Amino acid sequence: MKLSHFALATAACIAAGNACAQSNVTIGGIVDINLAHGSGSIANKSFVGSSGIGASQLRFTGVEDLGGQLRAGFWLDSMLQPDSGAGTPTNTNNQASGGAAALAGSQGLTFNRRSTLSLGGPLGELRLGRDYTPSYWNLPVYDPFGNLGVGSTHTLNGAITGATGVRASNAIAYYYGHAFNAFATGQSLQGLNVGAMAYAGENASNAADAGSGNGASVRVGWTAPAWSVAAATGRTRNVAGDLRQTNLGGAYDFGVVRVMGHLVRDRNGAVTAKGYLLGLTAAVGIHQWRASVSAYETDAPGRPKATKLAVGYVHNLSKRTAVYATGAVIDNEGGAAFGLNQAVTAPNARSRGFDLGVRHSF
């Protein structure tokens, strides 16, 4: 359920008179909370976690019709930790220094997921602010778990792509073939869809790292009724070595079963990595099953590699509420030591984990 401009009109008008000019303002979000467990060869961990199948969030969105087929829109989206009520830090400059927080959660509520203002028309959408990089989109779109929870693809969990591997701040972007002011990863229109972004680290011109945090990202795809495919690439400058991200993804919907996959190649300075995911979803009525295998390997000494198998089940209680269970196991080799759900495991050892939870959208 979403609260439209009508339900918010009184409060909005009291707070700021010009808020009443919005033709559509919405408050929405997701609360996803779970019991999570991870086991490793060194240490296990159990905790109350979040975002197992839906990213816990609070968002404010709005669209205004400007006439002449032109529209304006905004999107303010904050990541939540419902187990503690804490917010999540953002990153202000697309560098490690821009994401630091003295104490986790002490920064309060931030619109770290997305904070954008858009202008759009028949020729596409111009979007400014903090948003997902186009070179990230293929990872969640072509992952049965949407890159969420213990089952999410290891091509991101193990990635070497740094601060802009998912989002970038101080960005100017152009989108074509996507629903206006939308979450572009899930709302591509039929036919050609394009996303292109440039972003800035905003360092002083005389600084030793003047160009760090500057970058660009582009994605080009095609969406048909039963299938879709897309390729993307991005590069972020960094004084210690540029970050590069390239991937290709696709999916085919057979009706009950949808299969998908993606290939990735990343580079961080002198280190190169490659990976893949193959997965599927199967839905029958209120039941959904998910499964994937993903792997990620770098050319660092020993060639660390991790391979992950994940399976999950979602039971939809209503359009807005679901319960779920996800399990995963990861095998490390070449000196890799990835643990699931915060477990600690020795190099080349196995780790297991599971999520049991409930998701509610509003």
UniProtKB/TrEMBL annotation:
<keyword id="KW-0472">Membrane</keyword>
<keyword id="KW-0732">Signal</keyword>
<protein>
    <submittedName>
        <fullName>Porin</fullName>
    </submittedName>
</protein>
<keyword id="KW-0998">Cell outer membrane</keyword>
<dbReference type="InterPro" id="IPR033900">
    <property type="entry name" value="Gram_neg_porin_domain"/>
</dbReference>
<feature type="domain" description="Porin">
    <location>
        <begin position="9"/>
        <end position="334"/>
    </location>
</feature>
<dbReference type="Pfam" id="PF13609">
    <property type="entry name" value="Porin_4"/>
</dbReference>
<dbReference type="GO" id="GO:0046930">
    <property type="term" value="C:pore complex"/>
</dbReference>
<dbReference type="InterPro" id="IPR023614">
    <property type="entry name" value="Porin_dom_sf"/>
</dbReference>
<dbReference type="GO" id="GO:0015288">
    <property type="term" value="F:porin activity"/>
</dbReference>
<keyword id="KW-1134">Transmembrane beta strand</keyword>
<keyword id="KW-0812">Transmembrane</keyword>
<keyword id="KW-0813">Transport</keyword>
<comment type="subunit">
    <text>Homotrimer.</text>
</comment>
<dbReference type="GO" id="GO:0009279">
    <property type="term" value="C:cell outer membrane"/>
</dbReference>
<keyword id="KW-0626">Porin</keyword>
<feature type="signal peptide">
    <location>
        <begin position="1"/>
        <end position="21"/>
    </location>
</feature>
<dbReference type="GO" id="GO:0006811">
    <property type="term" value="P:monoatomic ion transport"/>
</dbReference>
<dbReference type="InterPro" id="IPR050298">
    <property type="entry name" value="Gram-neg_bact_OMP"/>
</dbReference>
<keyword id="KW-0406">Ion transport</keyword>
